Amino acid sequence: MKIPVSELLVRYMERLGIETIFGMPGAHILPVYDSLYSSSVKTVLAKHEQGAAFMACGYARASGKIGACITTAGPGATNLVTGIANAYADRQPILILTGETSTHIFGKGGLQESTGEGGSIDQDELFKSITRYRKVIERTDYLANVLNRTSKVLLSPNSGPVLLCIPFNVQKELVDEDLLDQVHTQQSEPESGNSRAIDALTGLILEARNPVIVAGYGCIRSGAQAQVSELSESLNIPVTSSMKGKGVISEQSALSLGSLGVTSTGYAYKYIIDNADAIIFLGAGFNERTSYLWDASLLHNKKIAQVDSNPEQIDKVFKSDVAVTGDIKSTLNGVLSTLDAQGVDRQAARKQIAVNDPVSQRDAGSSRIFESGFALVEGFYKRLEQHFPQDLVVFDDNMIFAQSFFNVASGNRFYPNSGVSSLGHAIPAAIGARFAEGKPTLAILGDGGFQMCCMELMTAVNYDLPITVVMFNNSTMGLIRKNQYQSYQQRYLDCDFVNPDYALLAQSFGIGFQHVESEADLDRLFAETDFSNSSTLVEIMIDKDAFPNYNSLRN
Ligand SMILES: Cc1ncc(C[n+]2csc(CCOP(=O)(O)OP(=O)(O)O)c2C)c(N)n1
Ligand SMILES: [Mg+2]
What we know:
By secondary structure, the protein is of the alpha/beta class. It is 36% helix and 17% strand. The chain is built from 22 helices and 20 strands. A 6-stranded parallel β-sheet has the order 3-2-4-5-7-6, with helices on both faces. α3 runs parallel beside α5. The N and C termini lie far apart (65 Å). The site of thiamine diphosphate has 17 residues, from β17, α18 and α20.
């Protein structure tokens, strides 16, 4: 049977398991919207296409499934750019569908034309560096090929955004529905490292006297939390994490060193320098913040192993003694079964680690970064830990507070604003995640960030989707003010600003509101807030002149 291309694309999305598509319609993409009318793929109308892109990112991160966005040609597509850049940097699988003027008017100055012809903007060129595959579909004879390439990228462990731009007339062209049978839409089994590499990794782990695991986001992507915990617990190996790897093993566990990085308490850093003779990087990059600006003493005189599914990460900034390219979960399963196959007595092979109770020592060190002025922030995170032993989902744009103050339990999920670290991310990302999972979901951000994306809260209201937004109110772009304080002789420029009345704002949005300026307010917040069934804006007051005591810039 013949069906329109728009219909075929919607059926393709259904086969890929796409459940929700975030975006905003415009005339050039309406045929696809019309085909979505009777589809199982649910459409979500965002307030701004950037919000739609961040929602797709949040959806993909929380669910591990493919996120999707849909916009019209021209401004609809250009508004996506930062969100898609974020997905590219984070290797999130996001399918983007955009419209375009009809092919017969290419170059003639069509409304919102984006072909790069006749003086129009060139959308394809614009997205070149932030997509892993993109295609302006001008014909239908190669459609099966295009969709196969799309699937290949979206289903790969090192995925990223794919942009399909479909001219208006092509969306309405008829094609044979059997064409879909030529397109693969199933994920293949993730590949572990090869057996020689697994043997070498097992050997390095057994030989080390005091190894430390650095767990990164790769562990979460591959769902390797149980394997990391088993390796750590059975051989008594302490675990630290990158910011994105927080919670791979419970940060409340005695084997957790907390997270590693320039904005952390510094406990894991000191532990590694003083004690470790081997470091095992699992899906963790050694980037600027995690590595303390590539501090060589962290790696000095230590054996290094690295496991990553992304070959680009291997030996990127350091040379490892053992490098394994492969899925982390399957690779660790390989290590654990190699230990058994070699008859290793895990009890006897346990490491004699140098600390008894890392959690309390770690917390005692936290004053190094946050000397004063952050008691309410700390109090908030401590109560959050107690209130949610599990099932909490947190998207956090402020990150550095949480890095030191929030011990993420293994049943909770912490998603810092990684990717391109763009402000305006947490609220839409949390909304996207809430569409994927019905768990209590928090967006944590500053007042500057809030004002960049607060209208998306109305998207949550629109879909009756409960989320809790926690906003730190210091009437300033705190991190910018900190830099101008530390490095520019307090010549404050374009950091301070005036805030609206947030109680009235929440009221006008029809959501709950909590104002926090004391410990008693924090108690009330946790006693009164329904994190599961209704939306609330929480405003926590902090001092604009309280600065975290770190400097992340290399001169
Ligand atoms: C889109 C974007 N623009 C600019 C920046 C640079 N930037 C990083 S932190 C920051 C200030 C954030 O202020 P706020 O959200 O109020 O958080 P605070 O630091 O005050 O806690 C800015 C402007 C950015 N990360 N993203
Ligand atoms: Mg602020």
